[in-house]
Design goal:
Blueprint (H helix, E strand, L loop, with lengths): L7 E6 H15 L2 E2 L4 H5 L3 H8 L7 E3 L2 H9 L6 E3 L5 H9 L3 E4 L2 H14 L3 E8 L7 E2 L3 H12 L9 E7 L11 H16 L8 E3 L3 H6 L7 E2 L24 E13 L4 E2 L5 E2 L4 E6 L16 E4 L2 E6 L7 E4 L11 E8 L2 E3 L1 H8 L3 H6 L7 E4 L1 H6 L1
Parallel strand pairs: 1-20, 2-10, 3-4, 4-5, 5-6, 6-7, 6-8, 8-9
Antiparallel strand pairs: 1-11, 11-14, 11-18, 12-13, 14-17, 15-16, 15-18, 16-17, 18-19
Helix pairs in contact: 1-3, 4-5, 5-6, 6-7
Bound molecules: pyridoxal-5'-phosphate.
């Protein structure tokens, strides 16, 4: 037992990560730009990058200058693309780390150029094209105005003008998680129309559009690279696709029974005393709570796995503790390992199962796992047998 596996921890199965990467790469048949923002969705960017480097991705995607700089400190030399607009205060930091900016406005491009001149280096950027996502990007309808302005500031290809290299263009689908393709077709047509109007040869640009969902569902939009995130980490953005295996679970959340007790009828548990024992019951207290990222709404609704069996969570979840009923697993004792997310024997609770119960998406469950939970790397075999 690793020292980290005390009251609660996150197990990270790097074999599963590798398998999911291969699934996306095979489906998309194009270069890979894995997204490792938010510490690789909470999985841990260091382990993810170490695992994926030998696969030879084109580069990595992040959301912030700090995340990109952290990749450089890990020794990453490939391109690191920041997909969110940079606040002005972060531009110099991004330049110092030789990140690739995504540009959504001419003043953003001017700031990037100023940073390049300050840094005395040629800096890369990709143009973000807004085809309906709305949160970032140049408006696809106005390419006749911004296209020439961007080209004028940066030259028209890999030769840097005034410290800037325009090396890519991308868009982002807003509805790749639904079966109906019409919204994505519309965005695709807008993007295509924008590309042909750019005053630079498109062949000089890395053109990309698809995150996990589109990469698996709409392979005709694979272009020069795809940007998968959630699928790599075990979340399924396109469930039920006939020719794509479900993602292998990458993350397991485990904790230990820190107390077991037999209670008489009428006993109550948790804040608000929302569960009352109808008869004699056995309760087990787990060393995990909402302060660890276990959603509080799972109180009286969620389940845990003990010795390969499902047991119900009773009462409200506290910040540090959660109580389960152990009547069906009487042999479980103190320090027993209990699974909140992941596999135990034949049973499996996925992040998407939890998200469904909570009314959110797997992304939020994963990124919500608190730094309080140590991340412990393991292999698929270890994760399945515990
Ligand atoms: C987060 C993000 C992705 C990855 O999305 P997934 O659905 O997790 O695969 C790709 N592109 C952009 C612009 C993103 O912000």
């Amino acid at each position: 037992m690793a020292i980290a596996e005390t009251r609660a921890w996150v197990e990270v199965d790097l074999d599963a990560l590798r398998a999911n990467y291969d699934t996306v790469e095979r489906a998309a048949g194009t270069a890979m730009l894995p997204m490792v923002k938010a510490d690789a969705y909470g999985v841990g960017a260091a382990g993810v990058v170490r695992t994926l480097e030998p696969r030879g991705p084109w580069g990595y995607g992040v959301a912030t200058a700090g995340e990109g700089a952290a990749l450089r400190r890990l020794g990453v030399t490939r391109p690191v693309l920041v997909l969110s607009p940079l606040p002005l205060r972060d531009v110099a930091r991004a330049a110092a780390a030789r990140l690739t900016a995504s540009v959504s406005s001419l003043d953003g491009l001017d700031a990037w150029r100023a940073a390049a001149l300050d840094a005395g280096a040629a800096l890369d950027f990709h143009v973000d094209v807004d085809t309906g996502m709305g949160r970032s990007g140049f408006d696809w309808r106005d390419v006749g105005a911004w296209g020439p302005a961007v080209a004028e500031r940066s030259g028209s290809g890999p030769d840097p003008v005034a410290g800037l290299r325009w090396t890519g263009a991308f868009t982002h689908f807003h509805s790749a998680d639904v079966r109906d393709p019409s919204a994505s077709v519309r965005q695709w047509e807008r993007f295509r129309d924008t590309l042909v109007q750019l005053p630079v040869p498109v062949e000089q640009l890395l053109v990309h559009a698809s995150a996990s969902g589109a990469a698996l569902r709409w392979r005709e939009y694979g272009l020069d690279a795809v940007r998968p995130g959630i699928f790599l980490y075990g979340g399924d953005p396109a469930p039920g696709l006939a020719d794509v295996p479900a993602p292998a679970p990458v993350v397991a959340v485990r904790s230990r029974l820190v107390l077991v007790k037999d209670v008489p009828a009428g006993s109550t548990v948790g804040y608000g005393a929302t569960h009352t024992a109808a008869g004699p019951e056995r309760w087990g207290t787990l060393g995990i709570g909402y302060g660890d990222g276990l959603p509080r709404v799972l109180g009286n609704r969620g389940e845990a796995l003990v010795r390969g069996r499902r047991v119900p969570i009773v009462g409200r979840i506290s910040m540090d503790l959660t109580t389960v009923r152990l009547d069906d697993v009487p042999e479980a004792g103190r320090d027993e390992r209990v699974t909140l997310i992941g596999r135990d024997g034949q049973e499996l609770i996925t992040i998407d199962d939890i998200a469904g119960q909570v009314g959110t998406i797997g992304y939020e469950i994963l990124t919500g796992l608190s730094p309080r939970l140590p991340r412990v790397e393991c292999s698929t075999e270890e994760s399945e047998t515990g």
